[in-house]
Design a protein that fits this description.
Helices cover 67% and strands 0% of the residues. By secondary structure, the protein is mostly helical. The relative contact order is 0.12.
């Protein structure tokens, strides 16, 4: 993607160029800000994870994402949006077939080189866990419903979704399905009662899934005292002392102590072990990520100033993006 961006830099849309300037400015601010920050390098296992270099690495990652956006826009403009969607379905169908083959081979112990199964037995599809992979499949399922794809494609997607055991993916599908039926009832009064009755079990399933999510994660977010006791007595439970649960508390400390310009690009893993941020959570020996991403990471790494600049960057009128 970086190579694609370098070759096609002159063809970039103005919106992308503005984001490029924003990311570049953000990098320089981060490198200067790093001079006044403390780091914990005990978790560093690669030269690219070192202070300053991790900011540069994160910067190139953002540029690669920007290049990918340009690639998608140009692909859709050249091939047409309908044909582009067709390509997305075709590529992902064979990708899912490959994953299912690897899943079976790994399950029977014949071929385990790619680790497409997590320790708990979930199909993760080259992700770290089944959750984000399930969200990807849920999005493809929604697209396949919107574009009325064939039964074989939908069956493959449902199978991948089931094997991923992704609660977030199931929630997404339920929300879409419920919204779809209620919208259909609005435009077809004759079938309104039947559709609403059909939506009731889906609504029950949605509430039940929500309950399971709250039971799994909610208490750790609501009851800080219980969270502290568990974290202190279970320092090796990486699902709890790393990732989102710990990140919720650590990110809050980072944002409140660096509100304007944040902690700098890519610095979270080498700062989260510092006493001033981790509170009652034990130090960990892994290069941790927050697990939130998106706007939350933007706020943490660039502060309120970066978040506001990001929010006001708008699409230029002549930037052709398919709808």
């Amino acid at each position: 993607m970086l190579l694609y961006g370098f070759i096609n830099a002159k063809r970039f849309h103005k919106t992308s160029k503005v984001f490029f300037l924003f990311f570049t400015g953000w990098l320089f601010v981060s490198l200067i800000h790093n001079l006044f920050l403390k780091f914990d390098t005990s978790v560093v296992t690669s030269i690219l994870q070192q202070p300053y270099l991790c900011s540069v690495g994160r910067y190139f990652e953002l540029l690669a994402c920007l290049s990918f956006v340009e690639l998608i826009i140009n692909f859709c403009n050249e091939k047409g949006f309908k044909d582009s969607i067709e390509s997305v379905f075709l590529i992902n169908f064979w990708f899912c077939i490959l994953l299912l083959m690897l899943y079976v081979l790994e399950l029977i112990g014949v071929f385990t080189a790619f680790n497409v199964i997590t320790q708990s037995g979930r199909l993760c599809g080259f992700f770290n866990e089944g959750g984000p992979f399930g969200l990807l499949i849920a999005m493809l399922l929604i697209l396949s419903l919107m574009y009325k794809r064939g039964l074989v494609e939908k069956t493959v997607l449902v199978l991948c979704m089931t094997l991923s055991v992704s609660k977030a993916g199931v929630m997404l599908l339920l929300v879409y399905t419920i919204a779809y039926y209620f919208r259909k009832a609005k435009h077809n009064r004759r079938l309104k009662r039947r559709i609403i009755l059909l939506s009731l079990p889906l609504l029950f399933l949605f509430v039940y899934t929500s309950y399971l999510l709250v039971k799994t994660y909610g208490l750790s977010w609501i009851d800080s005292e219980a969270t502290m006791k568990y974290a202190v007595s279970n320092p090796n439970d990486m699902n709890f002392v790393a990732g989102r649960v710990a990140g919720k508390y650590i990110l809050f400390e980072m944002v409140t102590k660096n509100p304007l310009i944040g902690i700098g690009l890519g610095n979270y893993p080498i700062m989260r072990n510092l006493d001033e941020y981790r509170l009652f959570f034990p130090k960990i020996d892994i290069y941790d990520a927050t697990g939130f991403g998106g706007i939350v990471d933007l706020l943490c790494q660039s502060g309120l100033i970066g978040l506001i600049i990001f929010a006001v960057i708008k699409k230029y009128p002549h930037t052709t993006i398919p709808t």
